[in-house]
Q: What sequence folds into this?
């Protein structure tokens, strides 16, 4: 019964969303608002019925049979509801309608809200049509089996149970940014007020996306057992491209909000970010990729998603082409100014996104051309690996970070480089010393040196900027700085930490394989690992082969227990690594395979991942900074204030901050 | 600064960046691209004619996995049921690398014609095999009419 109830609720939500879109785009007002809230409630209840079906192990529901099992722990029964294609599309609908409801409840009444709700309603309707008619999670089985097939064991992990919700909060969050852009275009009014009201949505979606991507990376690091956290897999790139464009967007929105400039570019980015989110969904869901994410290998679904992407993107771009000529250009500015720096930021970020896009879709396009027999099969099947992405993106990130402290300190309209550079000299010296130090320790790798250089430069430069903003008050005033400033500083420092961590980890990670019989030991990086043998341990729905390893370092000994788990239901295995955290990085021990001819000899893979926590911590700080900026913006409800506070005055420049061109 | 020169400056910066990025992309492409080959392709052209990275798909030949003399390396042969390619991999393979099942290995050939794999990929769950492994078998089968060997059925 409950599955039918869920199905019915989904149809009710579809009807409410349809009403929301019609009313939102025409008369607007209270009715559209109520329908948006109703759509979200129906969708959430529908999701709830699916979760109940999963928790109660209702094996008359096809989806439960395919993705659950009676032996599965409760957490993964719940997560199983979205750990599959159909369920995750329902989650997508929940979040999409949810964003509409949040807007309906909290946005100021007016044409902008009504139109945005209308467009959001259209997107919600599209998502529901796809859900209900192509991938319904509520399909029943006439002849229910005794037990289910189980969830892919790789996905039975807390980080990856939370990964899809956060990723979708990011992806789908872009849908409301898109709706705001479309609403602004329909109203013919992309101004500072529009930017001010759009920015929180962009910040929220981008921060959630950051968390979602980071959770995926953490999971890959400890669950796949290879020690890598980013593989430039097309599925990872699919989430990285909207992230890059959204990062550009949250910066260009600043220019539009504070100065009224870059309006059409900002709108374009808002449309692009959502289109790339849809493209990402298409790549993951269509079956063009074979990966752990590709639950549903179904070309028909892929085609429909592609058509949806075409309609949403095409309509938005047509709207954009129609309205763009009416958008006012912002006030003039010097290339050397904060505007100029933010333009550079946008150039680097969007070119990076383009490079990732080229590297990701080229093999797919060639494949498609080959399948259509337009090129020879030899040329059609290829892959593009890590070196391409490292070589092309590393310089982009380096420029991005080199300009970051300058951008933070530069005043609007016109700045002078020389005094800025002079003022930032201490950071430059610290960065050069740190880079030389890291190179001396790490064997003079250029990649390593320059990663540390730009990272340290960014962190100290941002720190200097914070101190400058305290003015005469010194350290005491540091805590009184506005939340927006702190948000920016923390996100930017997180970026620096991330780059240092990523380059050091990539350049200086060491790993070795040791075949060991019980009693034998291996030594690496100042650690001694004594293998004591393996034993068989029963888990709730798996059988584990667990190794006992005594790890000794600096005279202290502790027990590490990496495992290999085998899941009888799905006939699959997973590797559970043992990780010993230290200040400088992780010792990472994975239990490998048994030697063929010697039954009691096991192969251990031991790796040292220096500064790995800086990678994840840096990403966490980026998200935290984004959320802080968001909260700061929500607290400040007053209409636009003149934006130049005394703390913004810049060292060494005398350009007066008068006459804000667009503030009228 | 005038509107027009502002725009010119912007377009100039953008084009310099795009050209630079494109140049990097071209350099990056040539070093990072790996073309897919089946074991039969390798047998037809000879391993020595492949200087760049290649990806080879197929099944792991039953009975071919071993750990070499000192147990540090994993060696196995990839087969498309007609020809085989020897592979050596320094590391612990993913969990689903099992004899008789589909696999994709990426790397370069050494002088002996053994593929020194930098990456070994297997399917991620029990339902399907990597596309490239399947393609290899399909191509080989087109001339032979069968798609199974060992206990690995290519379905």
A:
């Amino acid at each position: 019964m409950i599955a039918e109830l869920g199905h019915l609720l989904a149809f009710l939500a579809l009807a409410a969303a349809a009403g929301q879109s019609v009313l939102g785009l025409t008369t607007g007002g209270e009715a559209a608002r109520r329908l948006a809230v109703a759509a979200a409630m129906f969708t959430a209840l529908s999701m709830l019925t699916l979760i109940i079906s999963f928790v109660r192990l209702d094996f008359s529901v096809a989806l439960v049979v395919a993705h659950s099992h009676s032996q599965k722990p409760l957490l993964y029964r719940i997560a199983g509801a979205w750990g599959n294609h159909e369920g995750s599309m329902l989650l997508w609908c929940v979040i999409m309608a949810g964003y509409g409801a949040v807007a309906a409840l909290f946005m100021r009444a007016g044409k902008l809200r009504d139109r945005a709700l209308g467009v959001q309603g259209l997107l919600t309707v599209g998502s529901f049509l796809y859900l209900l008619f192509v991938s319904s999670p509520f399909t029943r089985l006439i002849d229910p089996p005794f037990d289910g097939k189980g969830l892919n064991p790789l996905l039975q992990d807390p980080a990856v149970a939370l990964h899809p919700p956060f990723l979708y909060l990011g992806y789908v969050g872009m849908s409301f940014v898109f709706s705001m852009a479309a609403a602004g275009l329909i109203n013919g009014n992309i101004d500072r007020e529009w930017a001010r009201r759009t920015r929180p949505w962009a910040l929220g979606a981008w921060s959630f996306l950051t968390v979602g991507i980071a959770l995926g990376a953490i999971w890959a690091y400890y669950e796949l057992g290879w020690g890598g956290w980013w593989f430039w897999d097309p599925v990872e790139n699919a989430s990285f491209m909207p992230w890059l464009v959204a990062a550009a967007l949250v910066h260009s929105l600043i220019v539009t909000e504070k100065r009224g400039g870059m309006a059409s570019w900002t709108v374009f980015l808002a449309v692009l970010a959502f289109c790339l989110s849809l493209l990402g969904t298409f790549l993951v869901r269509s079956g063009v990729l074979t990966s752990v994410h590709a639950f549903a290998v179904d070309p028909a679904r892929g085609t429909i998603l592609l058509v949806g992407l075409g309609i949403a993107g095409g309509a938005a771009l047509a709207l954009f082409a129609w309205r763009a000529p009416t958008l006012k250009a912002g006030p003039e500015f010097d290339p050397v100014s904060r505007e100029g720096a933010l333009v550079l930021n946008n150039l680097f970020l969007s070119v990076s996104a383009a490079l990732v896009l080229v590297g990701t879709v080229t093999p797919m396009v060639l494949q498609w051309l080959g399948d259509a027999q337009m090129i020879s099969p030899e040329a059609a099947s290829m892959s593009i690996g890590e070196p391409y992405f490292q070589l092309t993106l590393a310089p982009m990130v380096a420029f991005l970070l080199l300009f970051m402290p300058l951008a933070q300190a530069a005043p609007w309209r016109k700045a002078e480089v020389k005094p800025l550079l002079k003022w930032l000299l201490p950071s430059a010296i610290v960065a050069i010393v740190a880079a030389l130090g890291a190179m001396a320790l790490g064997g003079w790798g250029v990649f390593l040196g320059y990663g540390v250089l730009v990272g340290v430069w960014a962190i100290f430069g941002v720190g200097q900027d914070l101190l400058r903003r305290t003015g005469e008050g010194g350290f005491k005033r540091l805590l009184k700085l506005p939340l927006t400033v702190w948000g920016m500083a923390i996100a930017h420092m997180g970026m620096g930490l991330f780059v240092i961590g990523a380059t050091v980890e990539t350049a200086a990670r060491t790993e070795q394989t040791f075949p060991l019989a019980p009693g034998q030991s291996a030594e690496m990086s100042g650690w001694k690992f004594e293998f004591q043998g393996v034993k068989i341990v029963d888990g709730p729905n798996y059988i584990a082969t667990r190794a006992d390893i005594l790890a000794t370092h600096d005279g202290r000994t502790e027990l590490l227990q990496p495992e290999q788990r085998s899941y009888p239901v799905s006939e699959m295995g997973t590797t559970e690594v043992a990780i010993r955290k230290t200040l400088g990085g992780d010792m990472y021990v994975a239990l490998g395979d048994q030697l063929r001819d010697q039954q009691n000899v096991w192969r251990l893979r031991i790796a040292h991942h220096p500064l790995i926590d800086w990678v994840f911590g840096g990403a966490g700080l980026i998200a935290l900074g984004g959320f802080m900026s968001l909260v700061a913006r929500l607290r400040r409800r007053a209409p636009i204030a003149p934006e130049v506070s005394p703390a913004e005055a810049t060292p060494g420049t005398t350009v007066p901050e008068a006459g804000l061109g667009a503030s009228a | 600064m005038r509107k027009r020169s502002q725009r010119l400056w912007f377009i100039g910066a953008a084009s310099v960046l795009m050209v630079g990025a494109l140049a990097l992309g071209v350099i990056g492409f040539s070093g990072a691209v790996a073309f897919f080959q089946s074991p039969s392709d390798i047998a037809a052209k000879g391993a020595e004619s492949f200087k760049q990275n290649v990806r080879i798909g197929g099944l792991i030949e039953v009975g071919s996995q071993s750990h070499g003399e000192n147990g540090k390396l994993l060696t196995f042969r990839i087969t498309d049921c007609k020809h085989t390619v020897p592979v050596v991999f320094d590391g612990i393979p993913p969990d689903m690398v099992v004899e008789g099942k589909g696999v994709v290995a990426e790397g370069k050939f050494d002088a002996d014609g053994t593929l020194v794999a930098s990456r070994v990929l297997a399917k991620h769950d029990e339902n399907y095999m990597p596309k490239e492994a399947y393609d290899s078998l399909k191509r080989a089968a087109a001339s032979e009419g069968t798609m199974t060997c060992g206990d690995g059925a290519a379905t």
Q: What stands out?
A: Chain A touches chain B through 60 residues (CB under 8 Å). Chain A has four domains: 1-143, 152-401, 402-506+630-636, 510-613. The two ends of chain A are 60 Å apart (CA to CA). The longest helix of chain A spans residues 338-371.
